[in-house]
Amino acid sequence: MIENLWATPFLKTKMSDEIRDLVVNRIFTDYDLKTPPSDFGSLNILNNKSEEFIQFRDNVIVPAFDQFLEQSLGKRITDWKSNEMHGWITGTGKDYSLNFHNHRGAQLSAVFYLLCEEQDKGGAITFTDPRMNANRGYDEAFVPWFEPKVLIPQSGDIVVFPSFLYHFVTTYQSDIRIAVPVDLFLRTNK
Questions:
Q1: Can you say whether the dihedral through the CA atoms of 43, 105, 170, 61 is positive or negative?
Q2: CA 7: distance to chain centroid?
Q3: Could you tell me which of 183, 122, 129 has the C-alpha nearest to residue 151?
Q4: Residues contacting residue 86 through CB under 8 Å, at least 6 positions apart
Q5: Rounded to whole angstroms, what are the CA distances from 177 to 61, 71, 87, 115?
Q6: Which end of the chain is more exposed for a tag (fewer CB within 10 A), N or C?
Q7: 83, 78, 89, 77: which is closest to 44 by C-alpha?
Q8: Three-state secondary structure string covering the chain
Q9: What average pLDDT does this structure show over 75-90?
Q10: Phi, psi (deg, nearest 5) at residue 86
């Protein structure tokens, strides 16, 4: 019997256009996209107390993480004693790219693609095999075992993945794109 050992769960789903549009409009109102809160060390946009961000958190972000946890572990966020989420804005202008990285310290990460209409302008997110050098010594017949997962995101896409997965974003040439990465920190102790 073939078993897939050390499989890495990965979820791709969609959010509703209604909430997505509300959050995009709120972002345009509240943030300067020339200098957005665009990395982990900056402002946590999930602390935005607007009704749109509360709906986004409660009706999109939390359910996406819960869906991932339920399907992969049979759990929900509330099964941990405490949790924290940190979100920011990335990729708001032409020539944006993001180097090879992971989200160290978090257990789960997600990217919520709010606005990325131009599909032929680059900006693919590529996830690589977490088993570094696992492909060493294999010939070409085994390439499918090690191929990266490449997604060309569309508006409304959601991807959820373990934070240890290394990934990068290729350069794109769109005038505007809004993605909101969110890290989820699950704590067994308060």
A1: negative
A2: 19
A3: 122
A4: 40, 44, 46, 106, 182, 183, 185
A5: 19, 30, 16, 5
A6: N
A7: 89
A8: CCCCCCCCCCEEEECCHHHHHHHHHHHHHHCCCCCCCCCCCCCCHHHCCCHHHHHHHHHHHHHHHHHHHHHHHCCCHHHCCEEEEEECCECCCCCEEEEEECCCCCCEEEEEEEECCCCCCECCEEECCCCCCCCCCCCHHHHHHCCCEEECCCCCEEEEEECCCCEEEEEECCCCCEEEEEEEEEECCC
A9: 94
A10: -130, 125
pTM score, whole prediction: 0.91
- Rounded (10°) CA dihedral 187, 69, 148, 13: -130
Q: For tokens 């032409």, what's the residue? A: 94
Q: What is the pLDDT of residues 168-188, one digit of tens each?
A: 998 888 778 889 999 999 998
Do 156 and 66 form a contact (C-beta atoms < 8 A)?
no
